[in-house]
Amino acid sequence: MSLDISFFDFKNLSTNEQYKIAESYGIIVNRRESHDLIFITYEFHFFSVEITYAVRDHKFTSLNAYQHKFERAMFI
Q1: Cα-based angle 31, 63, 30 (whole degrees, multiple of 5)
Q2: Spatial contact of 53 and 59, defined as CB atoms under 8 Å apart
Q3: Alpha-carbon distance 47 to 37, whole Å?
Q4: Which domains does the chain have, with CATH numbers?
Q5: Which of helix, strand or coil describes residue 53?
Q6: Which of 1, 17, 41, 68 is least surrounded by CB atoms within 10 angstroms?
Q7: What is the pLDDT of residues 6-16, one digit of tens each?
Q8: What is the DSSP code (8-state) at residue 36?
Q9: What predicted TM-score, i.e. pTM, was given to this entire model?
């Protein structure tokens, strides 16, 4: 299942909505662990989202969204 949402629309959502959309509709392209943190990168058509999860606290600690350059976005 995919969701066609622009980077601008995504950034205008609340942080909680951004977490939900990234987890529900994003494609996981990278997952790495460092100490008690897990970093997961989700891919969308025109942007990527990196979520950091604190394992010890069982909660999300940050969310960063990065807009793709147009050339890359055309082929995803």
Answers
A1: 15
A2: yes
A3: 23
A4: 7-73 (3.10.450)
A5: strand
A6: 1
A7: 999 999 999 99
A8: T
A9: 0.83
